[in-house]
Amino acid sequence: MMRFWQTLLLGVKSLLLQKLRSALAALGIFIGTTTVIWLVAMGEGVSHDAQQQILELGATNIIVRSIEPHSSEAAGERVKTYGLTRADYRRMMSNIPTIVRAVPIRELRREFMVGGRRLDAKLIGCTSDHLALNRLQIARGRWLRSDDDRENVIVLADGTAKRLFGYEDPIGQKVRVESDVYTVIGQTKPREASAAVGGSLEARDYRFDAYIPLETFRHRVGDQIMTRTGEGFNFKGEVVELTQITLTVGSVDEVDETASIVSFLLQKYHDQEDYAVVVPKELLRQAERTRTMFNVLLVVIAGISLLVGGIGIMNIMLATVTERTREIGVRRAIGAKRSDIVQQFLAETLVLTGGGGLLGVLFGLMCGPIFDFVRNTAELISPDLLPPIVHTLEPRIALWSVFLSLFISLGVGLIFGVYPARRAAMMNPIDALRHE
């Protein structure tokens, strides 16, 4: 250990003889290390925003739907009973701890009437969580509350309200839906239709919807729906308790496992395939692609930045070996081994790269305050000077980037310091002493 410290101190003293050259050599590693940490922080910030947008689209959701079975046995039945039940909902909530939110709905096409205006729209029985799940916003009035159960209240989507009431305020007015009358308590803001994502999520149009409490739907509309088929008194019916249950889990990693448990529970209590468990695989793959893309980009940046610094270190050390040829000859003449020469020059290289790396890490950790200062200064000069994404970007320091940049800087010192050190050690002592 004493010998190691002596070699290290000797390397520091040798570097201090050429302070400017040593500082410039360490500057390359300093810039490379700082660049890695800063760019990783920027990349993590952008990646985090992208991940949040993907998650908002429903990457952590599992959609369980009721589907009508097509078995030959059920083909002749006048009233079919199928799909999800309220018991299924209770079993999922009590047996699957990874579920953080479950939103059941029941929906049907119905004719809405206000005065002489008529509209065929979708009547949706839902809970208070339906608003946040579908990223709906209230334009007038309020949304459904838990104490609205069994009350004849309704919230209209923007398109539904405009078709039935024009530009008149619908709050407090009555809407007839088939034989029931509901009081309008709210109207949602316009919401763009969601596009289909791969084969996982279907497109959804929110313009012509109307929302009532799920319990109200159950008691006013009921589970059994009869529809006329053809002329006369031919009717066909179906009994469905829930159209869909949307489950939300805590993280993307829990989606597949939770979906498997849901499928197991449904298989156990359903004697026919009258349900579908839909996992947003396309969104999950997009999230994984985004994460991988940023990781690869950051590794490339780290390699290029520190490679440039390493080449600078190697150049300086080769020049140092040439300048100190006579010193190397004297050391060899008084008994220094080749390994001692190698250790001396490697120690000097590690001091340069280690010192530059540590300073780079300290400066890199100041990424957030410096970025905020530069952004605020640019906004004072001109609000339109920066792209919109920069105004909301928040750098996120990744701990792994700190250790990676420091490790790479030391590795660069070893790799690019070996050749100059070996070149110094392989010198002939007699030729080295004759060197002018």
From TrEMBL:
Please provide, alphabetically and separated by semicolons, the GO molecular function terms listed in this UniProt record.
ATP binding; hydrolase activity; transmembrane transporter activity
Q: What class of enzyme is it?
A: hydrolase
Q: How does it sit in the membrane?
A: Multi-pass membrane protein
Principal localisation = membrane
| Domain spans labelled ABC3 transporter permease C-terminal | 300-429
EC assignment: the record states 3.6.3.-
Cellular component terms (Gene Ontology): plasma membrane
User: Mind telling me which residue stretches traverse the membrane in this protein?
Assistant: 293-318, 345-371, 397-419
Q: Write out the annotated subcellular location.
A: Cell membrane
Source species, domain of life:
Bacteria
Which InterPro entries does the entry mention?
Answer: ABC3_permease_C (IPR003838), MacB_PCD (IPR025857), Macrolide_Exporter_MacB (IPR050250)
Q: Which residues form a coiled coil?
A: none
Arranged from A to Z, the UniProt key words for this protein are: ATP-binding, Cell membrane, Hydrolase, Membrane, Nucleotide-binding, Transmembrane, Transmembrane helix
In this chain the MacB-like periplasmic core domain maps to 22-231
PANTHER family named in the record: ABC TRANSPORTER PERMEASE YTRF, MEMBRANE COMPONENT OF TRANSPORTER-RELATED
Q: Give the record's family classification.
A: Belongs to the ABC-4 integral membrane protein family.
Name of the protein this chain belongs to: Macrolide export ATP-binding/permease protein MacB
Gene name in the database record: macB_1
